[in-house]
Batch of 2 targets.
Target 1
Amino acid sequence: MNEPLDAEVAAALDHLGFRARSWRPLSTIRAAEHRRSVFRVDLEGGRILKARRLEDEATARRLFEVRQVAPPGFAPVLHCHRAVLLEAWIEGEDLAHRTATTVHLIEAATLLARLHATRTVQGRTLPATQSTASERAAAEHARRRLAADGSLRDAETDGIGAALARLDPERALVGLVHTDFCGENMVIDRDGRLHVVDNERMGLGALGLDVARTWYRWMLPPAAWECFRVSYRARMPHDDALRHFAFWALVATLKSAVLWLQLDPARAHVSIARLRQAMADQEQVEL
């Protein structure tokens, strides 16, 4: 216990009757970006929890409500007290450090499809579609930032702008999304079962962008991505998320590149390379 336990986390544990034996802070980009706290907490008696302090009570409550309707396979939130969420701790090896088998890819695609098929939260029906205007505007802003920074050449900047205008579906199917569905956040437990952890960004959004973020973040080899894509499509009653994939891949990579420029400029080249790949992929389709 080299660092003090977050005071709000400690208060939540005490309020719920849990006695912490030891703890350690966990570092995540999201936590650093929003000044949140994340801890692994070992309780007396051997139980382990993951404790998150979010930025405010309203955010914690919204996330708690959303995560109550997530399908089995997503690590559940057990308690919400003020701005603190207490989650089940899943012990195992994440898929970022092992080769995902066909079984894992199919299981992961099935979980994402089930999440996307969720239609109600706390008895409220989710909207079916939304305009792409805000995402398009964010992508255009990111494109200009990358051009001004010198990360993109003039020809690339113009080509991306033209592709965004040409590929924009103008309306997107929306639903419950994960926003960080990748190998780092998928754990295989000792019994070989797959669990999705680090679900703190779950919320309402465009399904196509969620799939594109998975393509961007997981960086699967082509054959593995095709297995994931086909498995996801087979379990969805529509193909909206994949039909406009080229547009969403550009949006996801543009937004991520700008984020990395802010958080860790030395790593922004990864996003730029992925952006160029997205452009090359959609150009190849048009040939």
Target 2
Amino acid sequence: MSELSPDQRAALIRRYFAACNAGDYLALVSCFTPDAVHYFPPGLPDVPWRGAETIAHKWVWCVETLGSRWTIEKILCSADSDEAVIEWTHWKRNQKTALRGDEWYLFRDGLIAEIRAYYAAPADRSARINELVDFDYAGRSYATVPPGD
């Protein structure tokens, strides 16, 4: 059984996004377990982001440098596990661009323990497999070869 209700998980995600939009370092840190990991697709430097403090510093940088703001488009929270998925938009106001995507959340000890970000963007044609950087797919029992291979 989950330690947070679906409504509590959704509220924590909304609090996290409010802290992102405010560029509030301490509020951001308070949303995560100390050892939290934020995974990203390839193309960003220094990914994944490991630790609550690193995640907070990186989002504060985005707010200050890119003029970043985020909106949550949809939230779905599991009724029987410590998971949620959202759809979001990252508005980079200083660059006059936006990025859309999804994130899968895992919760532990009443906080966010993991985020896996997926972008609504073209695949990297040079990559053999387009996947998150440094995410343990095999260890999490994801398929590592196509069916029939």
